[in-house]
Design brief:
Layout: H1 13-23, E1 27-36, H2 45-53, E2 56-65, E3 68-76, E4 80-87, E5 97-105, E6 108-116, H3 121-137, E7 142-148, H4 157-166, E8 185-190, E9 199-200, E10 212-213
Parallel strand pairs: 6-7
Antiparallel strand pairs: 1-3, 2-3, 4-5, 5-6, 7-8, 9-10
Helix pairs in contact: 1-2, 3-4
Length: 214
């Protein structure tokens, strides 16, 4: 979300809320959410977006400050049975993490992980290896991994590891938002047959965001 800053360099959480309402999904993974308590309602972006759209929010802060936090957020309309933060920090790099939640959907458990991986090969490999360990910890009828994977090369060894665990999924170009040619944002669903379609939403200049849906 780039802290809700659009291509016009204006910070406007209301525009992001309108996109979330338009998507109308049961589960939404957000990255780069700034949630600060400085007296302005839109500065607390996680709280603002949840309040404006009617979702329950689960925070996955990667940077914590005295007046708030910054990082990942999972929005859901489904009951939350379990939730936890996963530390993906790599030495001397920007702090990274993931949110793991178990949701109740039609009386079945759905396990969801939302993440935002690093910019260098070594940290992404470390982070994907850690996620692989988490994925193997337990099984569920439906598992979803989604987020900004930041992998520019489709043959990267991190992607190969995730494909071995979760199956190779279709991708859609999502970066940069004004002329997308790279599939940095990804969704994996297991079992594979539960995935019906993946597509990108192109909406809202001058909003600067990337969205893919299943």
């Amino acid at each position: 979300m780039h802290k809700c800053i659009g291509l016009d360099r204006k910070r406007d959480a209301g525009r992001i809320a309108s996109v979330i309402r338009e998507v109308n999904a049961d589960v939404i993974g957000l990255q780069e959410v700034d949630n600060r308590s400085d007296g302005a309602s839109e500065s607390a972006q996680m709280d603002f977006l949840a309040g404006e759209t009617g979702y329950e929010s689960i925070s996955g802060p990667t940077i914590k400050r005295a007046n708030g936090h910054y990082g990942n957020v999972l929005l859901t309309r489904r009951p939350v049975l379990e939730k936890r933060e996963i530390d993906l920090c790599f030495s001397c790099r920007e702090p990274r993490g993931a949110i793991e939640a178990v949701l109740l959907v039609h009386d079945e458990e759905v396990r969801v992980i939302v993440t935002h991986l690093g910019l260098t090969f070594s940290e992404r490999w470390f982070q994907i290896a850690r996620l692989a360990d988490v994925i193997k910890e337990k099984t569920s009828p439906l598992f979803i991994l989604l987020g900004d994977i930041n992998e520019w090369f489709p043959t990267g060894r991190g992607l190969k590891l995730l494909h071995r665990l979760l199956g190779k999924q279709p991708v859609t170009r999502s970066y940069p938002s004004w002329r997308p040619f790279l599939a940095l944002d990804k969704i994996w669903v297991k079992p594979n047959e539960a995935l019906k379609r993946i597509w990108a939403i192109r909406q809202g200049f001058p909003v600067w965001h990337r969205i893919i849906c299943l």
